[in-house]
Specification:
Layout: E1 6-13, E2 25-32, H1 35-47, E3 52-55, E4 61-62, E5 68-74, E6 81-84, E7 87-91, H2 96-105, E8 108-109, H3 121-127, E9 141-148, E10 151-156, E11 162-163, E12 166-167, E13 175-182, E14 184-185, H4 188-205, E15 211-212, H5 225-231, E16 238-239, E17 242-244, E18 252-254, H6 260-278, E19 287-288
Parallel strand pairs: 2-5, 3-5, 4-19
Antiparallel strand pairs: 1-2, 6-7, 7-13, 8-14, 9-10, 9-13, 11-12, 15-18, 16-17, 17-18
Length: 292
């Protein structure tokens, strides 16, 4: 019984489980309530031959338009944060914004740069999310607990390969469940000012009040993806309800009821035009999901 592992929803709408707001459905959705139950659920699904997909906040993915005949596993209830001096142990379902708030409240520095990045810790570690190439959660990582081949495994930073907006977890089925970081003491007032500055800049340079999944493309070496797209005059280009943001060209926004097909078609157009004009291949930062 799926209910042994957490809260279960059947024929669940996934509109609020992906930040593009794509309207699709899953046969099952389980909000697991502990790491032990997550591991048990994974093994149960494997034995029952039920396919599954783990989602945090869905802030960097493009879901299919078609329904999923499997189980979505939500980690939103895995949000414990335990702070012991400068050591911070965090379950991977916690929102980055919550982690930033909690660490600053304990006078710990290191995470202010992640205050405006949407999504969960697990997703941020998989994609090595950051505001710039010099900032990385991995800089502070001590160890990471993952489910690998249906077993809990503890890794150190040296066991993990990561680079700008990338990690060795991206093309695996490993599930990140808990991370331990070592931060440094900081002054709360200065850290709060830093967060305020970052938030104000974001409001000025990124779309707000619309559904999106953050930056669509990685910045190629020597270029800014948004500028390449902007220079081609592509801001505002629209297919269905999917449009290239008028505020920042490296964002695609859902203006109403955009489909996955609309978003993917815009991506193809952008990549083709940028390559034909500049000879630059734009690499996706977002992940296009295909149901198994």
């Amino acid at each position: 019984m799926l209910s042994n592992y957490g809260e279960v929803m059947e024929n669940a709408s996934l509109e609020h489980y992906n930040t593009y707001g794509i309207k699709t459905y899953s046969k099952y959705l389980v909000k697991v309530d502990s790491i032990d139950h997550l591991l048990e659920l994974i093994n149960y699904l494997a034995k029952s031959q039920i396919s599954y997909l783990v989602l945090g906040k869905g802030s960097n993915v493009i879901l299919p338009d078609t329904p999923y005949n499997g189980c979505i596993i939500s980690l939103e209830k895995l949000h414990k944060i335990v702070i012991n001096n400068e050591e911070v142990e965090v379950e991977c379902g916690v929102l980055l914004s919550e982690l930033v708030t909690k660490t600053i409240a304990n006078n710990l520095a290191g995470f202010a740069n992640f205050a405006t990045i949407p999504g969960t810790l697990g997703g941020a570690l998989v994609g090595n999310a950051s505001l710039n190439k010099d900032a990385s959660l991995y800089h502070y990582l001590e160890k990471l607990v993952v489910i690998k081949d249906n077993n809990l495994v503890t890794l150190t930073k040296d066991d993990i390969k990561y680079s700008y907006r990338d990690s060795s977890f991206k093309n695996t089925k490993d599930i990140l469940v808990k991370a331990t970081f070592k931060l440094k003491k900081g002054e709360q007032e200065k850290l709060l000012k830093e967060v305020t500055t970052i938030k104000e800049k974001r409001l000025q340079t990124q779309p707000k009040g619309v559904k999106s999944a953050g930056s669509v493309f990685k910045n190629p070496d020597g270029y800014a993806a948004g500028k390449l797209i902007d220079d081609l005059g592509l801001k505002g280009l629209q297919i269905g309800d999917a449009a290239i943001s008028l505020v920042h060209a490296n964002f695609i926004v859902n203006l109403g009821s955009s489909t996955s097909k609309d978003i993917k078609k815009l991506i193809e157009i952008i990549q083709e035009k940028v390559y034909n004009t500049y000879g630059v291949t734009l690499e996706l930062e977002q992940k296009i999901i295909e149901w198994d």
